Amino acid sequence: MTLNTVRNAQIEVLKRAIARRHAELLEETREDVGRDLGQAEISRDVRELEKLEAALARIDEGTFGRCIECGAEIAFKRLAVYPVATRCAGCQGIYERDLQSSWRGETVEDSS
Fold it and tell me: What is the pTM of this model?
């Protein structure tokens, strides 16, 4: 088996998992609206649906599994746990650190 064959098989597994979760969330959202559980829960589901749809679009575009920051390949283990990941673990850590610093009012230079 070539590396591309393995990668394509992994992407197909993830694509099916994303499609399943997408269908589940659509149903949950319909139920939430029907029961009027509150705007916050519905908004959360809608945001997750948007992330899933974006992941499916990246698969179609051929950019799925590539970090939006550094362009490196996102580890399959990370994608298996969080298939909508757009950053590799390293870039995600930097992003979260910078985000926390901004919440505290620090500049990026202050938090280094």
Answer: 0.60
